[in-house]
């Protein structure tokens, strides 16, 4: 209690900031319950009674499909990205072979290159493979994600002792089992970090789907939201509800896994 | 046709407004958070929410708040009597830039706060204790202990935020195609918020398909960002060496 009273000013400042941070979300959820004409009659700051009609409109607009698309994209991206980055990271950290330096350099170069620069080449590639307008075109970028590979490499190098690997090899453990039964359990925090980050990035990705996905059945959530104004022109209440529905899951996931998110996002920035 | 340095000018102006505010606010709030124990996690999570929300959604909400006819800001200001008639927030060159900067601050300040906070927890406890024994108050601890000891973190944040700022795309695009989107225009009022990437997108995939021209813009961007990244790589290396 003494602590709280002493830091009264601090708490007031923090609360004001939190209210500012939360206000847009509040606005979004509240406005989702309005009948559109009522939105313009006054300040829409309290809950109204039009929620179910709006919900009907929104559900008819293909939001379920977009949800599924976004889920498929994010989950597959995470799985593929984890698979490749763990493999690359393990080999680069714990094995010696010809050309290892070169591959490490390529991974590093990939990190320096901003993703937008390579986007033209990537889109051409997708066109050649006829992947445009399929979800594959948004998933494939994550197969070769330099950041995850680099992160895994560093983590495996620092936290998996070479002695364990050698003694397991001595006992006749195959390389595959070595990787999945000894290395992966040792790097659980790194796996969680890459999971959360890649999930977040692929969920929020906007520019790439905007370029490669043109059919409504393949829209991911950010695309659907940005096209919502076109879909139902003046039904602002429904627009807001769709917005609220699409931001909701990521907020829930974040609140549950905030520890890993924060760890993941601050990892690499500050040591210790 | 607008020249290429115009888009650099726009991007830099928006960055110049957004970056200092972000860093200073992040540092101060992180220090406030560091000093309290109860509720630290709650405030941390709440202020971090905008960072994980789709920028598309934030753009939509902001274009509603600052809209002309139905915008909530105009409604409040006219009700309070500060404005006599609705103001075109999104149609004025400088207010448009300011709003884009505001959106970036709203989204990124939580990130700066988080990085600063983890930097503060990395400073050994005895340093704070020594400062307290020597009679340093809140302000003096902040000014003479925390700020200098976090200078490496500041440099790192400065460079990574700069890299991010050069890639500003989602915010301005959404501001002009969300709520108030009568027409999907490019660049805002007299191209004042046309950022590098928006131009890149528009030239290569939007209004025209000049992929070569787009690639040239991207190369120019790559040189700048590459330099920034190398710089941050060396600084981070130096940071790690100092800690060992």
Protein model, in words:
The complex is a heterodimer of chains A (272) and B (244). Chain A has a domain at 62-231: Orthogonal Bundle (MetI-like fold), CATH 1.10.3720.10. Helix content of chain A is 74%, strand content 0%. Chain A has 16 helices and no strands. In chain A, α10 runs antiparallel to α11 (175-186). Chain A is globular and about 75 Å long. Chain A starts with a helix and ends in a 6-residue tail after the last helix. In chain A, 38% of the residues are buried. Chain B is mainly alpha-helical and 244 residues long. Chain B has one domain (4-243): MetI-like (MetI-like fold, Orthogonal Bundle), CATH 1.10.3720. Chain B has helices spanning 4-35, 40-52, 55-65, 72-80, 93-122, 125-133, 138-149, 151-166, 170-175, 196-204, 211-243. In chain B, α10 runs antiparallel to α11. The longest helix of chain B has 33 residues, at 211-243. Chain B is flat, with a radius of gyration of 21 Å. The chains are: A mainly alpha (272), B mainly alpha (244). At the A-B interface, α2, α7, α12, α13 and α14 of A face α1, α2, α3, α4 and α5 of B.
Task: Report low-confidence residues of chain A grouped into runs of 5 or more.
Answer: none
What is the CATH fold-level name of the domain at 62-231 in chain A? MetI-like fold
Provide mean pLDDT of chain B, rounded: 82
CATH topology name of chain B: MetI-like fold
CATH superfamily of the domain at 62-231 in chain A: MetI-like
In CATH terms, the superfamily of chain B is MetI-like
Q: Which outline of chain B best applies?
A: flat
Count of the separate structural domains of chain B: 1
Output the structural class of chain A: mainly alpha
| Cα-atom radius of gyration of chain A | 23 Å
Query: Which parts of chain B are unreliable, with pLDDT below 50 for 5 consecutive residues or more?
Result: none
CATH class of the domain at 62-231 in chain A: Mainly Alpha
* Helical content band of chain B: over 70%
> Biggest interface between protein chains, with counts per chain?
A-B, 61 and 77 residues
- Specify the biggest β-sheet of chain A: none
């Amino acid at each position: 209690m003494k602590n709280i009273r002493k830091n009264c000013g601090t708490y007031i400042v923090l609360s004001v900031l939190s209210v500012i941070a939360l206000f847009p979300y509040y606005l979004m959820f509240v406005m989702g319950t309005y009948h559109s004409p009522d939105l313009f009659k006054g300040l829409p700051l309290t809950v109204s009674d039009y929620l179910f009609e709006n919900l009907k409109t929104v559900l008819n607009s293909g939001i379920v499909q977009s949800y599924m698309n976004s889920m498929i994209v994010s989950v597959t991206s995470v799985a593929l990205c984890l698979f490749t980055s763990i493999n690359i990271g393990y080999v680069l950290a714990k094995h010696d072979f010809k050309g290892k330096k070169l591959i490490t350099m390529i991974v590093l170069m990939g990190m320096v290159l901003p993703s937008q620069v390579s986007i033209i080449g990537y889109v051409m590639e997708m066109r050649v493979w006829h992947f445009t307008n399929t979800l594959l075109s948004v998933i494939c970028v994550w197969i070769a994600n330099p950041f995850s590979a680099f992160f895994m490499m560093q983590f495996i190098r620092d936290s998996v002792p070479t002695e364990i690997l050698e003694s397991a090899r001595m006992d006749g453990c195959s390389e595959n089992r070595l990787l999945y039964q000894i290395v992966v359990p040792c790097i659980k925090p790194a796996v969680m970090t890459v999971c959360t980050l890649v999930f977040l990035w692929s969920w929020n990705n906007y520019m790439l789907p905007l370029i490669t996905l043109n059919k409504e059945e393949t829209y991911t959530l950010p695309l659907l939201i940005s096209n919502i104004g076109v879909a139902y022109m003046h039904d602002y209440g429904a627009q807001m509800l769709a917005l609220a529905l699409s931001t909701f899951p990521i907020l829930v996931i974040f609140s549950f896994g905030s520890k890993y998110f924060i760890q993941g996002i601050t990892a690499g920035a500050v040591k210790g | 046709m607008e020249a290429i340095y115009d888009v650099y000018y726009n991007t830099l102006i928006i960055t110049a407004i957004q970056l200092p505010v972000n860093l200073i606010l992040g540092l101060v709030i992180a220090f406030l958070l560091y000093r309290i124990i109860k509720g630290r996690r709650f405030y941390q999570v709440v202020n971090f929410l905008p960072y994980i929300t789709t920028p598309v959604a934030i753009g939509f909400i902001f274009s509603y708040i600052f809209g002309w006819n139905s915008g909530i800001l105009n409604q409040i200001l006219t009700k309070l009597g500060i404005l006599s008639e609705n103001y075109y927030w999104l149609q004025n060159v400088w207010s448009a830039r300011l709003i884009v900067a505001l959106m970036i601050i709203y989204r990124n300040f939580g990130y700066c706060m988080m990085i600063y906070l983890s930097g503060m927890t990395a400073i050994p406890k005895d340093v704070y204790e020594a400062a307290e024994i020597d009679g340093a108050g809140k302000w003096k601890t902040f000014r003479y202990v925390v700020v200098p000891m976090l200078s490496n973190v500041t440099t790192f944040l400065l460079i990574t935020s700069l890299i991010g700022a050069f890639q500003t795309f989602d915010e301005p695009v959404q501001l002009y195609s969300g709520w108030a989107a009568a027409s999907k225009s490019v660049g805002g009022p007299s191209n004042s918020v046309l950022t590098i990437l928006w131009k890149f997108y528009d030239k290569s995939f939007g209004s025209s398909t000049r992929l070569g021209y787009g690639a040239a813009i991207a190369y120019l961007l790559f040189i700048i960002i590459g330099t920034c990244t190398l710089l941050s790589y060396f600084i981070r290396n130096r940071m790690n060496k100092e800690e060992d």
